[in-house]
Write a structure and sequence with these properties.
With 165 residues, the chain is mainly α. It contains five helices and no strands. The protein has a domain of 112 residues: Methane Monooxygenase Hydroxylase, Chain G, domain 1. The N and C termini lie far apart (61 Å).
């Protein structure tokens, strides 16, 4: 007796679902690692500029190479997953969003690298009075801006109120 097995085209095109999910999780981990490197580069850029730390400025250039490597690797992995695994809508949106995110992270890393290069060029000159040891206003403003960017948007107050849906 013969058995007829029906397989939809979606099932036939995606035989190894757990492997696909593992690959997506691996890409997500790499995006998080890249984001951590970029965040650290921004902190090093601040340290290089405000504290006149040449080692921090040099470390940014090393990390920028790692960020660039992550960018190329993640982009290739996302394209391969899209081309070879035929993701469904939600997965396709996730992969597309990750590609946009790593592009933006790479650009931010480049900005941090540029700030590190500026810090190296400014090092031979004496510090500006606004950025000296007694310049609490500039440091306070920088800390306040950093805190605001890291906190979630609060609707109903200030600028965020305009975007409430």
């Amino acid at each position: 007796m013969r058995q007829i097995i029906c397989i939809t085209s979606l099932e036939a095109s995606r035989p190894a679902e757990p492997q696909f999910e593992r690959q997506i999780r691996r890409v997500q981990r790499d995006v998080l690692r890249m984001g951590a490197l970029v965040e650290n580069s921004c902190l090093l850029a601040r340290k290089a500029l405000f504290d006149r730390d040449l080692d921090a400025a040099r470390q940014i250039a090393i990390q920028d190479k790692q960020v660039d490597q992550f960018y190329r690797q993640i982009e290739v992995e996302c394209v391969n997953l899209m081309a070879l695994q035929t993701p469904v809508n939600q997965e396709l949106r996730l992969l597309s969003a990750m590609m946009q995110l790593v592009r933006d992270l790479e650009r931010i890393g480049d900005y941090a690298d540029d700030l590190g290069e500026i810090a190296i060029k400014l090092f031979p000159y004496p510090p500006h009075p606004l950025y000296g040891a007694d310049s609490g206003d500039v440091r306070s403003l920088s800390c306040h801006a950093s805190h605001e960017f890291s906190s979630p948007i609060r609707f109903g107050r200030g600028v965020g109120a305009r975007y409430q849906v």
